[in-house]
Amino acid sequence: NTVMAARMTDAHRRFLQVLMSNGITEGSEARKLHQHCCEADKVYYAHDKLDDFISTINSHLQPLFMQIRKGISEDDGRAHYAVVNLAETEVTKMASDYTEIELELFRKTMDLIILSENGFASSTDILNLADQLKTKKMKKKEAEQVLKAFVEDKWLSEKNGEYTLHTRCIIEMEQYILSNYQDVARKCNICHSLAIQSQVCESCGIGMHLPCVRKYFRAQTEPRCPKCNEFWSCDIP
């Protein structure tokens, strides 16, 4: 007998619609939304059942090659949720919103960020790419506007003129990044999700997100690598 998936209620549909329109939703907001949707639809609500609630939605999204995925912010370690289209694992996700030249600038920016040591690329380095694009050259002023749009649409994050991949981008493009940057892309040894901003063990090469480093070493008497047990030489954030 095939066990039928739990019924998708109006509460599930409302939750999914908001998640899709947001692009990405922070964990505490997702929990509030879960409560609001259940109460509005007068269905059973339990504060610790968000994962089950999302699993039900995911079982109905499966035939559509879509999924709600959870990811961790590399800045503060907070959970975030985004709806991912599994049929489009490449930058083609962005193709309906951006021109070919804008996508080329994004790919080159992604190269700079992922190949950097700290997971950031400076605005100067990115803007220097603008006149090296194959599609056609882009004026720096134009490139600045495009970068602003990438930040507003939550594909990039910017801090003091330094850009990194937004949590939304990491959740949605994890598979694309892992398969296209096999030599450099690594998963965090603690939470096992893709790590862009990370610290790396000098002895064995494993990486850890900064919030995961902070949390892991808080419980240790001295900082030693969780894999090879060598002394962790990076500064604990």
From TrEMBL:
Keyword terms: Chromosome, DNA damage, DNA recombination, DNA repair, Metal-binding, Nucleus, Telomere, Transferase, Ubl conjugation pathway, Zinc, Zinc-finger
Transmembrane segments: none
GO annotation (BP), single: double-strand break repair via homologous recombination
InterPro entries: Nse1 (IPR011513), Nse1_RING_C4HC3-type (IPR014857), WH-like_DNA-bd_sf (IPR036388), Znf_RING (IPR001841), Znf_RING/FYVE/PHD (IPR013083)
The enzyme's E.C. designation: 2.3.2.27
GO molecular function, one term: zinc ion binding
Major enzyme class: transferase
Domain RING-type: start-end pairs: 188-229
Reaction(s) this enzyme catalyzes, per UniProt: S-ubiquitinyl-[E2 ubiquitin-conjugating enzyme]-L-cysteine + [acceptor protein]-L-lysine = [E2 ubiquitin-conjugating enzyme]-L-cysteine + N(6)-ubiquitinyl-[acceptor protein]-L-lysine
Cellular localisation: Chromosome, Telomere; Nucleus
Role description: RING-type zinc finger-containing E3 ubiquitin ligase that assembles with melanoma antigen protein (MAGE) to catalyze the direct transfer of ubiquitin from E2 ubiquitin-conjugating enzyme to a specific substrate. Involved in maintenance of genome integrity, DNA damage response and DNA repair.
Quaternary organization: Component of the Smc5-Smc6 complex.
UniProt family annotation: Belongs to the NSE1 family.
Record's protein name: Non-structural maintenance of chromosomes element 1 homolog
Highest classification ranks of the organism: Eukaryota, Metazoa, Chordata, Craniata, Vertebrata
